[in-house]
Every structure is written in C-alpha cells, then in structure tokens.
Amino acid sequence: MRLTFTIQRFNPEVDSTPHPQEIRLDVGRGMTVLDALIRIKNECDGSVALRYSCRSAICGSCAMTINGSEKLACRTSLRKELERHGHIAVAPLRNLPVIKDLVVDMTSFWGKIHDVHPWLVPAVRPSPTHARGHANPQFHNVDACIMCGACVAACTVHEVSKGFVGPAALAKADRFLSDPRESPSATRARLSMLQDEHGIWDCTRCNFCVEVCPKDVKPMEAIIRLRRASLEQGLTQAGGARHILGFTELIEHQGRLNEAIMPLKVVGFAPRALLHILPLGMKMLRKGKIPNPFGHAFPGLSHIRALIQRIRRATPQA
Ligand code: SF4
Ligand code: SF4
Ligand code: FES
After folding, report:
1. Which of 128, 151, 281, 292 reaches 20 to 30 Å from 22, CA-CA?
2. What distance in Å separates the CA atoms of residue 61 and residue 51, rounded to the nearest whole number?
3. CB 225 within 8 A of CB 173
4. Ligand 1 pocket check for 150: Cβ under 6 Å
5. CA of 213 to the centre of ligand 2 (A)
C-alpha cells in the first residue's frame, strides 16, 4: 500500500517557521510509525531528523505528535492510525523547543526532573516496617516512567506556563513519597519545595498527562498524592492548599460554596491580593454570582456533614 506522510519540517539554519512536507512511501503489514519514518529517512529523504533508540517502547526517545496526539512512534501502528484518522501526520512534541524536524530540546525537561531531587535520602534509622523487612512500598507504577516527555508536551499548564514543574517530574517526586527507606525530613523538604509557585498546586487536573502516558504512570494521580501528603504534613500556606481547606470548611458549615467568603479563605486578609481580585468580585456581583455571605444554610446540611465526617474517617488526611 502506498501512503502519504505529512512530516513537520524545521531546520533552524534555513527556516524561519516550520512547514509540512508530504512524502509517499510503500508500506507493509504490521509496520509502526517509527518503521515508516526510518524508511523515509533511509530511502526518500536523508535530511529528516528524528530521535529513536530501542524501538521497543523502553527508551522513551521516539515520542512525537502523531495525528495530533503525543505518542511513541515505535509502538504506534500505522494501520490503526490510518483507520482512525485516514492519514498520517507527524510533528515534534509540543511545548518544547524544536532542535530540528521531529527532535526537541529536552534540557528543560531534565532540569525539572533534577529540581525535584530525584534521589533517595536514606533515614538514619529506617522505619520499623522497613527494618523488619516487611516494607511493601506502593509506587503506584510511577517507577515505570521512561522519561519520554509526552505528558509534558500534552500538559495544558505547561503550555501557558513553562515554569511549571510538570507531570513527569512530579510523578518522580511521588515515587520517593512511598519509599519507606526515605528520611522523613527529606520527604518534608521535597514537599515544601513543591509548594512554591509552579509546583503541585498549579496542576488544573485536566487529565491529559494520564491520557497520553504510554506507560500508564498516571502523573495526575501522583500529583494528588503529593497534595494529600502536603496537607497531612501541615503544609497549608500555598493558595491551592488554602483553596481546598476553605472549600471543605464552607461546604461543612453552609452546605454550599459561598463565593463571597471564598477569596478570604484563599488569600486571607492580605490587602494587596484582595485588591488584585476585586475587579473579578465586582464582575461576579453584577452578574448575581455572589450569594449573601450570611444567607441560610443549605437544607440537608446534617447529611452533608455526616458525609464529610465519613470521608474523614476513611481518609484521615481529608
Ligand atoms: S493533569 Fe495537571 S499535570 Fe497533568 S496534564 Fe493536566 S495540568 Fe498538566
Ligand atoms: S510519565 Fe509517562 S508520559 Fe510522562 S515522561 Fe513518564 S512515561 Fe512519558
Ligand atoms: S525508540 Fe525507544 S521508546 Fe521508541
């Protein structure tokens, strides 16, 4: 079968912007997108730049955008892509600087992994469970990450805020959270670091990192575990933490969200921060979106409170 491939080309030495190139190739049964790209490079146009190594979904180096989604080219079937989209279009990973064609610069990716201190800091005295040899750490599959960068490319926060630590680095940080050999002070130091701007509270839980991860790492769930652990450790100063606590408090006391009080719960009585959100508050007031702060409690409040208490008993950190 003869197929047309659209490859996004960009050579910084001669191009000012990326441009598509169409290349036709005879393909056989069972081929992957990577197989086809290697043949295009070898048989049609040797100047196409791409990165790969293991060809077995292990090294993570062939991640790219295939028909609009982040995928490993070596485990993406040509036939399935064709059935689903009717064509094959490949481009580099989004939101990372392009070096050439399908090759992106992963420097910022590795920098962020390094920033979360991805190494074990052993406790001077191991926890009793570990010392007895009964340690059964729950790594939640985060150690399956192959550092392909697909999640970072798909991340909606990273798209608008390049400083965001990002899903891959946060999944890596979560891996040490569950390790009983880690020193509690190192865990706390890592969690404290992640409270800063661009840390765990910046994630909007869009779930894209979970959808694209080829190894089922589920970075968003790792971020939720890091948030829970932070609250457990009393790290509640970040806006995101205050938002969660304020939200729960309001629901528990009034049975509903109260937008008139919520800003005070999140930013406190900080005049400058309150001034910053004043225009939004005025707009909400005009649209009738701010309820009476002293309004009646929601009917059925006792049921809501009972529910919250039940959740608290089931998950002590909630
Ligand atoms: S869930 Fe969070 S980390 Fe994952 S892609 Fe969305 S914003 Fe990024
Ligand atoms: S979490 Fe998944 S998508 Fe992100 S770098 Fe690791 S393997 Fe790739
Ligand atoms: S070539 Fe190694 S993951 Fe695709």
Report:
1. 151
2. 6
3. no
4. no
5. 5
